[in-house]
Protein 1
Amino acid sequence: MQIPLRYLAHSRSGDKGNIFNVGVFAYEPAFHPYLVEQLTAEKVKAFYKVAERVDRHVADNIHGMNFVLHGALAGGVSRTLALDNYGKAMSSVILRIDIEVPPDIERLVRRRFPVLPAATSPSP
């Protein structure tokens, strides 16, 4: 089943110059392996569609990852006319990515979020 990342993790982000970073932290240690497996640098780059390069740093000890997106802010805050294109807003966007989880993890998520919308089956 596929579940939106927002039910598995929370995130923080920020920016400096033409780079923004997004940290993703699993709510439960049991969720972390699925995030590491599926949230690759390539997937994050394809999802945001703005970065020249994405570096991923895994922090197993805190069940998290940090993604650094280079060349992603149209030259940086002081060089762009795009008003809402700053790194701080990017953490909520990543939480829309769907993560595939097995039934036992879905049950664990539903204990935490009883109103979780029906999970979807992965696309063929």
Protein 2
Amino acid sequence: MSTDSRLDQDVVAVILEDHRAMEDLFRRMRSIEADRAAALKEFSALLIAHGEAEEAEVYGALKRFRGVDDEEVEHGTEEHAEGNKALLALLEVEDVGSEEWDERLEELVEAVSHHVDEEERTILNGARENVPDERRAELGVAFQKERAKQLASGCGSPENVRKIVDG
């Protein structure tokens, strides 16, 4: 009766884990004692892989469940685009830690934090309440597979982020 390994795959838990990692990377990008450029590189890859995997594997599947707000799912996709734009703006600043870099970092933090907060309150709570454990586990596996594929492809590079933003 080992349900624990299945729970590790719960798409909600996996997405929340990424959200916490993003918040940690924000702290590193703000800290003058950290390697801010490395933190940005890591964040860029995570944000893009996460958003692309959500859109490819999770959002469409969740729309099929009653009790998961379709409009919120659509809105989540729009917010991914806003976060990606803010990310690109930061990636294009050459001088890490400059005033411009700090300003664009705060714009990125604001866009992503707003999305994370909203997604956790609406989409993920809806998924927790209305999507069976087994289906959440399947979605978790699909999400992680797509996320890994994105990460392996160098999805966080400025060139790729620009491609996504320009559509």
